[in-house]
Known about the structure:
Rossmann fold; 2 domains
Amino acid sequence: MKRSLVxxxxxxxxxxxxxxxxxxxxxxxxxxxxxxxxHPVSLxxxxxxxxxxxxxxxxxxxxxxxxxxxxxxxxxxxCEDNVALAMPEHIGAGKGSTIGAVFDxxxxxxxxxxxxxxxxxxxxxxxxxRKVRVGILDTGISRQNPWLLSRVAVLFPIARDxxxxxxxxxxxxxxxxxxxxxxxxxxxxxxGLVAQIAPYAxxxxxxxxxxxxxxxxxxxxxxxxxxxxxxxxxxxxxLGSEQAIPALSDVMHYAEDRxxxxxxxxxxxxxxxxxxxxxxxxxxxxxxxxxxxxxxPFSNWDGGARQAAPATGIKSAWWDGTIGIxxxxxxxxxxxxxxxxxxxxxVPRVPPVILRDxxxxxxxxxxxxxxxxDGELGNRLDCADLARHxxxx
Length: 393
């Protein structure tokens, strides 16, 4: 009787873990199906020809044992948990609002103070310039903004709630906090900022999060892989998690090996420490400041910060075609990503390991203005200085 009870408890424990999902990287994408068949998992999603897959543990099997078994498979480079992420603005930075104006070239006048703060000016297209692609992993993009849509090269619907990449209301409360569509407009804002700072760049839109701002490590992994395969030299991620995400650390190796630099927001928790993926050493970590180069009250700070950028009262594209106003490190990050992309169009491709160092060394030292955060905010973005560091003629 006791033995039967123990067996029943083990079975119940195993069944309670049913549905656990892991992100797997294999040596070669052609091995994915064979690996899945060799273990008690179901293949949920893949990103051919990238070597990544999402698998789900079959009912009745212990996920911990399955994960260890897969890690021991010589064809498998890593097998990690599929951790949840969300937009940083869920914490600390409030909700966006709008002004009654259409988002178009007039946005440069609206943002004149911001552009002066980061020393941005329009550099005309030169005959020797080249097209640079920027991957934007977020809640999608407005389909009601022709000015912004004209910059889009590719749309990838990756979030599992819808089969399109549009930033639009869906009436969802996926984080169960009784507020619908909290991230509505977030992706359009981020894309609009990149388009302002890098007007000649091509945007690769990866809708990795739903309208409530919820994503996971797999949608981010897939978004990075899609961006790399689409030829992006820069990827912006304005989403994060307080929990460490080993899978994303591994995916950054894949991006770096293929010449893609990832830029990410540090987070809005208002404490020392960075959200993932900004906390990964291969990522350009961006903090947020106000119009006076003082740390924004919601911005995190960390010794790994490579750049700071304006993060308060930012104006950009909104989901309905108008102009949105929002604060948060989510909007500091695309300013840096855009500045990098705009500089890169005038120089040959720069390896990420070199590019990160040049970004970190460029800009304005704001430590004297922020003595309590000495060495933990990064230099404030200076587009002109960044261009000089990268050798723009």
